[in-house]
Amino acid sequence: MRISTFWYCFKEGIKNICRNIWFSLASVATISACIFLFCLFFSIVANIQHVVDNVEGTIGITVFFDENLTEDEIKGIGAKIGQREEVSEIQFTSASEAWESMKNDYFSGHEELAEGFADDNPLAGSASYQVFLHDITTQDQVVAYLQQLEGVREVNYSNSAAAGLSSFNAVIGILSLVIIGVLLAVSVFLISNTINVAASFRKRENEIMRYIGATDYMIRAPFVVEGIIMGLMGAGIPLVGMYYLYMRSVGYLTTKFQILSRIFQFLPLSDIFPYMAVVAVLLGLGIGFFASFFTIRKHLKV
Amino acid sequence: MIEITNVCKTYDTGNKALRNINISIEDGEFVFIIGRSGSGKSTLLKMLLKEVEPTSGKIVVNDMNLGKMPRRYVPKYRRRLGVVFQDFRLLKDKTVYENVAFAQRVIGASTRKMKERVPNMLQLVGLSAKYKYYPQQLSGGEQQRVAIARALINRPEVLLADEPTGNLDHDNAIEIMRLLDLINQKGTTVIVVTHSNELVNMMQKRVITMDRGCIISDEEGGFIHED
């Protein structure tokens, strides 16, 4: 394509937008709403996932063994557990390490109270494995596996926070997909409508173009440019809004609700924005391109 | 060369627009097609533009069989034709220069070529001085000249004119006919569909007369008596 032809199509696309400015604005506003919601849900889901990842790294399953087992036998079972694909890491704590840890936690400053147990470890038989998982949602099945292992006396695990967050994140993800899907359909419909109006404005011009020998591509180009411009505007506006909203919100929440920052580490904008921007721009571009491309097809027949 | 052989056209409504039409037009000819409303002249012109398909028969234009032409080749074929309509079909928001250049623009011609050809074409149709005017600032005759310039800018081999003087007064109609004659003398085949017997008589060219979808006469230097 010649540069002059490209600029011609670009100019005509802009003209189309200006000719039906209200239709165009309505289309841009709908795409903006759609992409804004996408960005919002994207931020929420990414942050919750971030928390879940952090929690997954700190919450583990504790496995205790029958008291008559030797340390070697326990380590043998540990090796078996470590081979499971759901397991990311295992940490062994021997009975003496458990007692040392307890002394530090409970008898710090009153070491004389623990001296009575010097040769008789009260936690004998409390050797344990701490099991960490790749994905907290697999916790139940790993626990079930551990409980049926021979030699395992007790399995302690936390059932609440991480798994709950994971489920919540999945619900948010589905909900966002549904809402974005509906808005996407509305955006496509509105762009299609705008392109139809533009095509009826340019009916005479298109007719002349066809008689002169313009290709379908040449006739279609200004409309596709129009769709793409509207799509990009519809992506740009919410991205700018989201950039400032995210920065302000995170700043506000972390200063006003400092307690939150202990349990909830927000993702920095620089981590989240590039991905969000790329997807949002592709989304806007895609909506604009496909809606205009397929709408104008029916106007091409001579 | 244009060869129309045994062409028939029946519309979906059952209307038989053309019945077994046979016409041969040599390169560089000037041909009038005349006839009453509904005689099939416009259908014939639309077939040459590949806007309407014949029900049966064969149309060959400059060795291209229109019946076998895939849709994607139609734009290229149309670039070899120029077309002028009764209502001019100019773009109101474009100047005279832009209207003519538009025909070059849509086929992807370079700006350099446009700057070279458009002034020449405007000179040929006598509108060099009015290149900045908008169509509504021009008379009917001038608007039709712009339309002719636009039709010719891509150097077509054939110029099709559908009632080109239908909206013009007598003097302007004669001017347009002289212009078409001049274009024909430069080598372009010209086919004019018209109602105007007076102009046909004045031009002394080949005249094909149609009635109810049939050719009833085909004469060189045709002369029509007013009813």
Q: What does this entry look like structurally?
A:
- The complex is a heterodimer of chains A (302) and B (227).
- Chain A is an alpha+beta fold.
- Chain A is built from eleven helices and four strands, in the order H-H-E-H-E-H-H-E-H-E-H-H-H-H-H.
- A four-stranded antiparallel sheet of chain A has the order 2-3-1-4, sandwiched between helices.
- Chain A starts with a helix and ends in a 5-residue tail after the last helix.
- The mean pLDDT of chain A is 83.
- With 227 residues, chain B is of the alpha/beta class.
- Chain B has a six-stranded mixed sheet with strand order 6-7-8-3-9-10, with helices on both faces. Chain B has a four-stranded antiparallel sheet with strand order 2-1-4-5, with helices on one face.
- Chain B is globular.
- The relative contact order of chain B is 0.19.
- The model of chain B has no long low-confidence stretch (mean pLDDT 90).
- The chains are: A alpha+beta (302), B alpha/beta (227).
Order of helices and strands of chain A: HHEHEHHEHEHHHHH
Distance between the termini of chain B: 33 Å
Strand order of the largest sheet of chain B: 6-7-8-3-9-10
Number of strands of chain B: 10
The portion of residues forming beta strands of chain B comes to: 25-35%
Weakly predicted, low-confidence segments of chain B = none
Distance linking N and C termini of chain A: 24 Å
Helicity level of chain B: 25-40%
Tally of separate helices of chain B: 7
Strand content of chain A: 5-15%
Q: What integer is the average pLDDT of chain B? A: 90
Looking at the chains present, what oligomeric state does this protein adopt? heterodimer
Mean pLDDT rating of chain A: 83
